[in-house]
Amino acid sequence: METQSIYLDQGAPVYTWLRHVFVPAPGFSWDMWIGNWVAAVLTLALFSYLVCDNRIFKFAEHIFIGSATGYLIVRYNEDAIVKQLWTPFFNPPQGAARDWWLIIPMVLGLMTFMKLIPSVSWGVRWPLAFFAGVGIGTGMVGYFQANIVEQTYVTILDVRYIDEFHQDFTLKLRSDDERKLLAQAADEYKAKRPADRSKFLKLATAMIRPVLERREWIPAETLLLHVVEHGLPEDDTILLKHRDWSRLFNSLFMWIGVFTGLVYFFFSVEHRGLMGGVSRVGIGILMITFGASFGYTVMARISLLIGRLQFLFGDWLHLKSGLSSISM
User: Fold this and answer.
1) CA dihedral sign of residues 226, 230, 232, 235
2) pTM, whole model, 2 decimals?
């Protein structure tokens, strides 16, 4: 049987493409086909909000919120109640001891339903207070670690070890010709007088350019000087440590940004003279930060839009090239 693509832009006839839009193609099950149509119709219904606020959009919005809520309820019941309470307490695995400590969260959880009985609704304060206290206590640890400890590390400790900023590159020689070329360039470099080596360095690095072709970026001068100092390894694998100026710049910029930003929020001294200049730098850094955060949010939304368009033109309408073809 002749093999044809179901994608129109891959040479499929129009009638074949239309038939597979409205009837599952070979390899597509009916549940997958129906799911694609439901998802496509709901996606278009949500996109209708771009024209105006309408009932179709509200209907699709309610379906999304309802299905998401139902899914979360099912997942919460499975992950929290069944796995964390019912199985270890009421139905423990064979050979496992019953976890009696689970009585405490079980009782607190049941007490939350006291809110439904007006005469004893006061009892809901106990589980809410417990949940709030535990949540705040555990959240403070993560907040302190992320916003104080890690922030201190990237702004102070990284700058402290500024001399150790380097990036490792691994180079595997592909042939004996590359090995001979590196050895020749290193020998010629050594043969030069110390006063002439700096002038010869550019010529020597040009000699070893063929070694760096079709590789990720590796500094040629660092490679040559490494071979000059350490020679060529027997296993043809060279490990380079190169000064990572980008990391150095990022760390210094981070330190300056945090320091000037904190100065801007220091209101005990009037922002004049040097203090005013530093605080204005802090304002600029804060504006850059807010702009980058907003830009990241916009990019995330555009990424979601691209994903939906890929689904509509690819999985639903079969117009997207590059997807896997299905034989008929």
Assistant:
1) negative
2) 0.58
